[in-house]
Amino acid sequence: MDCLRAETYVLDQLRRHLSPTLFYHGLDHTLDVTEQALSLAAAEGITDPETRQLLRTAALYHDAGFLTTYQGHEAASCALARRVLPDFGYAPDQIGLICQLIMATQMPQNPGDSALARILCDADLDYLGRPADFWPVSQRLFEELTLRHLMPDETAWLKLQVRFLSTHRYWTPTATARREAEKQARLAEVQEKLANGVRR
Questions:
Q1: Which residues contact residue 134 at a Cβ distance below 8 angstroms, ignoring those fewer than 6 apart?
Q2: Which of the chain's ends, N or C, has fewer CB atoms near its CB within 10 Å?
Q3: What are the domain boundaries of the chain?
């Protein structure tokens, strides 16, 4: 499989054709998820080069469905992967695994027992436990949803954040150790903001 060409292709498509109103689900998110997935894989002991490359491909393609649709973008991402990855030498079973990983990130996340799916799911929501950029990243998602009339106002958004942060779990020991405590701190901040009605 020619991973470099597959990567170059999807990054070029994302740079050229993603809507500029994808304030959260833009190229930066894809690159961040890819970086976090490989970091988690290393920490979780995933050393096989082919396995790591398939995880990397899945991360780079996991939100490519936003090129064509907003709702159901995971399935669209898989459709794109199935269409183009054979041209880059990916075998059917490799593409099947990539699509399995992509679909695991659909909300609510469902990675099952797959170590790679658990890694990608945790990478996809790594920012929830990052004190440095949780608020700016979540603000971008709020603006993206608001523009699409999927979020009525900030109060509704904060209530959703409380529910989401309260029920979310990290799937890998590494992500739990790295991010869970800070995620709980962010939950407390969101709850306080909601209680006080204070704009941040």
A1: 127, 128, 182, 186
A2: C
A3: 1-124, 127-200
**What would the mean pLDDT of 122-138 be, rounded to a whole number?**
96
Q: Do residues 56 and 62 make contact, with C-beta atoms less than 8 angstroms apart?
A: no
CATH code given to domain 1-124: 1.10.3210.10
Start-to-end C-alpha separation, the chain? 47
- Angstrom CA distances, 25 to 7, 74, 75, 130, stand at 18, 12, 15, 17
Alpha helices in the chain (DSSP H): 3-17, 27-43, 49-61, 73-84, 92-104, 115-124, 134-147, 154-167, 173-196
pLDDT in tens, 142-188: 999 999 999 999 999 999 999 999 999 999 999 999 999 999 999 99
* All residues at 6 or more sequence positions from 84 whose CB lies less than 8 Å from its CB, including other chains: 6, 9, 10
> Does the global pTM surpass 0.85?
yes
CA 143 to CA 150: how far, in whole Å?
Answer: 10
